[in-house]
Task: structure prediction
Amino acid sequence: MQKMINAPQEAVDEMVEGYLKAHPDLVEGTDNPRVLKFRRAPVPGKVGIVTGGGSGHKPAFIGYIGRNLVDAVAVGEIFSSPPAQMFFDAFKAANGGRGVACLYGNYAGDNMNVKMAMELAKDEGIEVRTVVANDDVPSAPKDQRGKRRGVAGEILMWKVGGAKAAMGAGLDEVIAEAQKAIDNTRSMGIGLMPCTIPEVGHPNFTIEDGRMEVGIGHHGEPGLEVVTLETAAQMARRMTDIILPDLPFKAHDEVVVLISGLGSTPLMELYILYNEVEKIFREKQIRIYRSYVGNYFTSLEMAGVTLTVMKLDVGLKACIDYEADSMGLCQFA
Amino acid sequence: MEQFANRDGIRIVFDLIHAIQENKQYLSDIDGAIGDGDHGINMNKGFTLCRDELLANPGNLTHGLKTLSKILVMKIGGSMGPLYGTFFKSLAAACDGVDAIDMAVFGRMLSSGREGIQKISEAKPGDKTLMDVLLPAETAYQAAVKTGEPFRVCLDKMVEAARQGRNATKDMVAKLGRSSRLGERSRGVIDAGAASCCLILEIMAGTIGRLLACSSEAS
Result:
């Protein structure tokens, strides 16, 4: 295991400490050492935006704490949902009096812990509503969309929800817009090399040299199939062939394209892939309104990529265009 | 009358902690086959935190189970935090204020634990989860109680059913949780939650057996 850590079991706490020291202009700690919040949160009169999940996905989740984005985050162990108490403390840290939108990904642990945290919040009179991201197309068939995992599409959900809340919308509107964002979003991943949880010490799956795993999950959940490694052009074709018919995305649609590396894939390769994706969209007359290419939602040091596409309407465009300032996503109008 | 004192029952919680610590790698390894390989790590973290707290603030079985529950819910997370947190809280509720725990009380604890989990999870038998262990174990225990078997035999029946349930998850296709996304590919490996649930029931039965032996020697 080639890792720059101290004791494996301290990795998450030490990462949080380092993060707080590096970004005092954006984030600050709370009474719960595993709950981080935007420096100005709770913002009175604004709907609070909360997310949370297992660690190992930097910049997700704490990297999206910031202005017009996420107000508070619950930080779990690596690849493991934060406990109910942490989500509850994050709700409190984000609550500016107009309720809290908890925007998170569809995983069994997160679902249970958020549910229990919402009960604790109810007892304290904090109104919490949720949107559960399920953008990962290969993780379940279309008729079982409710079972699909949330992956990099969560970033667009936070971007839209965060912007809507910043515009002064109420909880119902924030939830509706974030739900529309994720309903209009489809993703899929390809894995090239596995990752290692520090405390486990060895990869818990393998991808042989010269092979790639199509549809891999953000924690190494097996994908649809393992095939011979393809060129970037073939990968782009393969991914768009799966993602685009699922919504479906059609000619003249305006979309956001987000390409995120899974951890150890060089940015150079992400841009090579983007170049290919752009060609396919041009051929299909799908207009790319905005693109994001970078390491937005990773899986430790996994090699590979997630392609995410969101279909836009007027409301979503306004939210996507809205200014945002965070470590993971910084955008000025 | 076969029974043990709630006060002495704290031994059960310490034995559970020890067993989880000992089996950390085993539980992570089976989880790694179709999950993300962290089951043993997270269980070990929660149970070890509980040990620290119980050493500082000891008490009876009910107190030990409540402490374990509180730590799993508040500090551990994942799926196992809420599931086992609820399980141990429900066990504690069924023996709260009871000085002597006999086979009827333990039967109520088992039912309470199973009901607690059913309140937060939709898991049904056959879904390849800990419910494939818990439900048949409870059923076998209650059936043995009904036929008038002694406490220890009822516990043996419970463990036997738990082990069968755990082994049966090997041929199941996961319907819930992370491994459910694998469909057919989740077949062939036992479920990590089923394995830890079976371990927990085995340890409880073993320690209760020893407590019963001690209390009968003393009387």
Strands of chain B lie at 3-5, 100-102.
